[in-house]
Amino acid sequence: MMPILYHSPNSRSSAVVTLLDELGAADVEIREVTIPRQDGSGSPDAANPHPEKKVPYLIDDDETVRERGAIMLYLTDMYPQAGLGPLPGQPGRGAYLSWLSWYQGVMEPVMVMQFAGLSHPALGATFRDPATMIARLSEALARGPWLLGEAYSAADLLCSSPFLWFPESAPDDPAIRDWIERCAARPAVKRTAERDAKVAA
């Protein structure tokens, strides 16, 4: 049985579709499902096996994987020939794992809180604040064109994704803005946008 990615166009799962393209993972089936949207459209899809009817959701035989960072790690380990994530024992593995987890545990919560206008000392102490988030990105990109240095990885794909969806949220930092442009220029990113537009039409 081939792996199955449950995906809804123009959603968080689009980054995983882009990763599949980057990996050359033609043996992974992509199944479109509906999800509730913030504008009130859409609805939970009975065909989606995710326990909360969210996307992305990956099924690989008896394995099920939730959350983008975990799915990206699983896939880059599954397709090592693409070189989009250091493997166990390879240089940069620790940084790679850290960026994937940092996105889920810091970057996305900080950006959601900023969007929602939420601010509280406990939230800042736990998840950091926008200035700290920007500083971490800027520090990494001062050392190389990509988060891991000289090589593009799934960490760049994941961490750049909110800025591709909401360009107005990009910080006024030249290194970060140049990195976002490099990520947006990847052919796989453009192909996913075209694919999603066709499916959603």
Question: How would you describe this protein?
Answer:
- The protein has 201 residues and is an alpha+beta fold.
- Helices cover 50% and strands 8% of the residues.
- The protein contains eight helices and four strands.
- It has a four-stranded mixed β-sheet, with helices on one face.
- A hairpin with a 2-residue loop joins strand 3 and strand 4.
- Helix 1 packs parallel to helix 2, helix 1 runs antiparallel to helix 6 and helix 2 runs antiparallel to helix 3.
- The longest helix has 24 residues.
List keywords for this structure.
alpha+beta, 201 residues, single chain, four-stranded mixed beta sheet
Largest beta-sheet details: 4 strands, mixed
Estimated radius of gyration:
17 Å
What is the strand tally?
Answer: 4
Structural class label: alpha+beta
Percent strand equals: 5-15%
- Low-confidence blocks of residues: none
Helix coverage percent of residues?
Answer: 40-55%
Counted by DSSP, the helix tally is: 8
Averaging pLDDT over every residue, what do you get? 95
The N- and C-terminal alpha carbons lie at a distance of: 30 Å
Task: Write out the strand line-up for the largest beta sheet, numbering strands in chain order.
Answer: 2-1-3-4
Overall, the morphology is: globular
Order of helices and strands: EHEEEHHHHHHH
